[in-house]
TrEMBL record:
InterPro entries: Nmd3, Nmd3_N. Residues 11-26 have a biased composition (Basic and acidic residues). It holds the Pfam family NMD3. Residues 8-254 form the Nmd3 N-terminal domain. One of its GO terms (cellular component) is cytoplasm. One of its GO terms (molecular function) is ribosomal large subunit binding. Residues 1-26 are annotated as: Disordered. This is Nonsense-mediated mRNA decay protein 3. It comes from the Archaea.
């Protein structure tokens, strides 16, 4: 060791010359110590004696500071690791710090975290191990408390004009509600939740935490299914603090017809497979394959006879292609060969086609995705 002419203030040994702190940099009193004295008091890691974590037993949210946070933890060990990582402090002068942690489940509520730290201090490799017990306590967060108490501000009632929404429409409506809330949650919004979503005889009822969400959900449903919605305050009550609480009902009306339904507008051109009910009803003529669109004044609900749905169509055998306008197929009920209209969507190479039998006759039904020429 080259003599610097400086001495350790604690033991009096010679110390090598250290660089002067830069202007403005705080003068570190410990910097003057020799290595032996410096390491005598050195702690690489500053760890609390124990850590307590409050976790919501319903949703897994963690109480931090004075709020509940969704941490997306799969189990309490993940939560404990995160909490330990938050609580531990590593000495500022340590470089190239690495750490590892091994959780040891002591009992249901206690996890002992064995943490190993290593780093470089004054050019010397240092390693330190600390053990921090983490105690997990379970509680119910504010949001889960409200959900289990049945609190909600808006109710979206999904109904349909002159019919009952299908199973798919009801399930999709509830799925959209849950997806929407999940998106908000992912953005850190803990005020967004679905209190209850259930099928009812004539549709689906979705209770949701805020009116804003109720309105958003209603708009999304109309975007996807067509139709319209209206909202009205249904109930005024008082919360526990005596404030007035308005509950808003959002009445969503799905259109009279749904895509996939086969209707006869009785205009002489034959049945129509409905392909869209957003705006004016649109569809495909089963006789020609041409496009059908309801008049503006009819909108999504033209006067028409309901014949069935695409799901009622059955596969049958193509016997012969007669000409540009007709195809012979087997009647799926009598197995007699019958001549039916040949629409544009008919594939001349097809051996099988889907047909729907109604009172007025047999009609070819296109595969999904055909919207009319
Ligand atoms: Zn010393
Ligand atoms: Zn919770």
């Amino acid at each position: 060791m080259s003599k610097s002419g400086e001495f350790c203030p604690r033991c009096g040994d010679d110390v090598p010359k250290r660089p002067e702190p830069l202007p403005g940099e705080p003068r570190d009193r410990d910097a003057a110590l020799c290595d032996a004295c410096y390491f005598e008091d050195f702690d690489l890691v500053d760890a609390p004696d124990r850590i307590e974590v409050l976790v919501c037993s319903r949703c897994g949210a963690v109480h931090r500071g004075n709020r509940w946070l969704d941490v997306g933890a799969k189990d309490y060990t993940d939560v404990a690791v995160d909490e330990v990582a938050e609580a531990l402090g590593v000495h500022l002068k340590a470089e190239q710090v690495q750490w590892g942690v091994e959780p040891e489940q002591v009992d249901q509520n206690t996890i002992r975290m064995h943490c190993t730290f290593s780093g470089l201090v004054r050019g010397t490799p240092v390693e330190e191990q600390v053990v921090v017990p983490v105690k997990v306590s379970r509680a119910t967060c504010k949001r889960c408390g409200r959900i289990s108490g049945g609190a909600y501000a808006g109710e979206v009632q999904v109904r349909a004009e002159e019919r009952v929404p299908t199973k798919e429409e009801r399930e999709r409506a509830m799925e959209i509600a849950h997806d929407m809330v999940e998106e908000r949650e992912a953005d850190g919004d803990r005020e967004a939740y679905v209190t209850e979503a259930k099928k009812v005889d004539d549709g689906a009822d979705i209770k949701i935490s805020t009116n804003k969400l109720g309105r958003m959900l209603s708009k999304r449903l109309v975007e996807e299914f067509g139709g319209s919605f209206e909202e009205y305050a249904t109930l005024v009550t008082e919360d526990s603090d005596g404030n007035e609480v308005y509950r808003v009902t959002f009445a969503v009306h799905l259109p009279r017809y749904r895509p996939g339904e086969i209707i006869d507008p009785e205009d002489g051109d034959g049945p129509v497979l409905v392909t869209s009910v957003r705006g004016n009803l649109k569809g495909v003529r089963l006789t020609s394959g041409g496009r059908y669109e309801a008049r503006f004044d009819e909108g999504d609900a033209p006067d028409a006879l309901r014949l069935g749905g695409r799901e009622d169509a059955v596969e049958t055998t193509v016997v012969a292609v007669e000409d540009e306008h007709a195809v012979q197929v087997l009647d799926p009920e009598t197995f007699e060969s019958v001549s039916i209209a040949r629409p544009d969507f008919f594939d001349p190479d097809a051996d099988q086609v889907d047909v729907l039998k109604v009172r007025s006759g047999l009609y070819m039904v296109p595969e999904e995705g055909v919207t009319g020429a």
